[in-house]
Amino acid sequence: MFRYLNETLEAYQARDPAARSKLEVFLLYPGVRATIDHQLAHFLHTHHMPFLGRAVSQIARFWTGIEIHPGARIGRRLVIDHGMGIVIGETAEIGDDVLLYQGVTLGGTGKDQGKRHPTIGNNVLIGSGARVLGPFTVGDGARIAANAVVLREVPPDSTAVGVPAHIVKVAGQRVAFASSVDQIHITDPVNETMKSLLSRVEFLERELDHRKGMDYEKLKNHAKEET
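Below the sequence we write its predicted structure tokens.
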């Protein structure tokens, strides 16, 4: 338990420049409180005491604004930045070294039974206000941009942006979270494609105007020769 807590506090210090000491993180960061309470809630839930587990999770929600169902499975070194409004569903699974910003939802898409919430791989970043909905996998090293709505699988080492989200490959390289936690400045492939198409249209219009000008000059020269 102490090793788990120490790893979590070190992860917060590595990824949050405002974290000045482990004591400050332990006492004042709601994400730490929420994950510690979840350990107890999950233990009660898996040992046939679901009511007590849910009671613990609701108390944690009251104090932190973070709702984690007791049935969710959470890996090591989870960092929840601010965390207000985060919702993690019953069958959600979160790997190691994951970073969540405020307002994230790991939810389902209906009243289906069984696995109905996403599985988040290792070393994943999920930006503010993102919604990940459904029983699919977000691969290791993936990034989900702020306010994206993800409704299908995200491959490893790629980025999901937009509503609904579409996938961008990140140069085939894994994101190192301690040095790269930018959730805003992410290239939107649709926007880039539109820019490319507009640039092409402008080029073709200039070519057409140029050709029209050449044809007009030819007609003028031909008229002069006839006269």
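Residues 48 and 108 are 24 Å apart (CA to CA).
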